[in-house]
Backbone:
């Protein structure tokens, strides 16, 4: 999954109507603006420290550009750091935020100041490991090639001890997922936030409590595809285990708020008010603005599938919207 996604992102800009999928910042400027104001409010109440903005997997740089524009009137004009591995997307990001500094991983982020961190639809792209229940116990799910195609098969080594006890009795065929890569990144960033100050907002689709289930999926040209076919040419994702990320952050001593529904979080930050202001300024676009608001926040659209989780330095104020 890691290698397939690295190849996939390195070669293309997958976002937008002509690509494979659309994300919240590409739907409306309101998403990045409210995310920027969420950070600016927290930073203001924390005493306006000399902080850096950092984003993981910034896509086209749209969220960052909208967030930075919204922060400026509050007096927040931080240096910008992007963690991005794709050369194709780095080039797009440079068009939107020319002054950014790029890093291959979180180790390159500044160590001398509070971090204001954003990760939208980043963690779902990180590799998962799957364990599968068989009649002879739990095994890791491996990828084999049967001569014609890649297929998932149970490995030969017993993995029962790696399955949480309350899920161990699940019937044969059941699948349990973990993402050691996602947990390691959250642990590393929470450690930085505790030591340096700052906060992180994680927004993604996922679940609150670890349950059995296979969420590995592939998307190609806005439709679901076989995740084992044509590796490196379609977007592979898995749902994010927010309970595992929250636990990793708490273990490092950070404060955690949420997860809450994306819709509830955006509405608490003033999404409807912002939509009304934009519609007043451009009455001919009122329907389009309302459609974007609904797409971001309504429960039958992105509003409750997507969740928001905040990780905050101890001693920093309570974040808005939770
Ligand atoms: N946040 C953006 C883009 C989401 S797509 C938006 O909301 O529109 C996922 C992003 O994460 C892409 O920019 C991709 O290149 C990047 N990415 C995926 N795996 C990564 C990894 N292991 N390290 C750094 N960036 C990664």
Residues:
């Amino acid at each position: 999954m890691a290698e397939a996604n690295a190849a996939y992102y390195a070669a293309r800009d997958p976002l937008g109507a002509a690509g494979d999928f659309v994300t919240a910042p590409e739907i409306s400027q309101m998403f990045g603006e409210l995310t920027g104001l969420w950070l600016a409010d927290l930073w203001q109440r924390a005493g306006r420290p000399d902080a850096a903005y950092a984003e993981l997997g910034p896509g086209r740089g749209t969220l960052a550009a909208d967030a930075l524009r919204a922060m400026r009137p509050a007096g927040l004009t931080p240096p910008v750091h992007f963690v991005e591995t794709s050369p194709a997307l780095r080039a797009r990001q440079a068009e939107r935020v020319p002054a950014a500094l790029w890093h291959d991983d979180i180790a390159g982020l500044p160590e001398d100041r509070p971090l204001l961190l954003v990760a939208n639809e980043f963690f779902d792209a990180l590799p998962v490991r799957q364990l599968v229940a068989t009649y002879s116990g739990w095994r890791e799910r491996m990828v084999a090639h049967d001569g014609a195609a890649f297929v998932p098969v149970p490995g030969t080594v017993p993995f029962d001890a790696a399955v949480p006890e309350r899920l161990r009795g699940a019937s044969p065929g059941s699948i349990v997922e973990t993402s050691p890569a996602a947990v390691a990144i959250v642990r590393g960033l929470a450690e930085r936030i505790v030591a340096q100050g700052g906060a992180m907002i994680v927004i993604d689709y996922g679940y609150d409590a670890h349950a059995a289930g296979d969420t590995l999926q592939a998307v190609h040209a806005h439709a679901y595809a076989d995740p084992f076919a044509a590796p490196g040419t379609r977007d592979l994702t898995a749902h994010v285990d927010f309970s595992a990320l929250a636990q990793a952050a708490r273990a490092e001593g950070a404060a955690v708020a949420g997860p809450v529904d994306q819709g509830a979080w955006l509405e608490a930050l003033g999404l409807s008010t912002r939509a009304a202001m934009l519609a007043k300024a451009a009455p001919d676009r009122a329907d389009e603005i309302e459609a974007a608001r609904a797409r971001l926040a309504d429960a039958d659209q992105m509003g409750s599938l997507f969740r928001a989780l905040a990780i905050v330095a101890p001693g920093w104020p309570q974040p808005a919207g939770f």
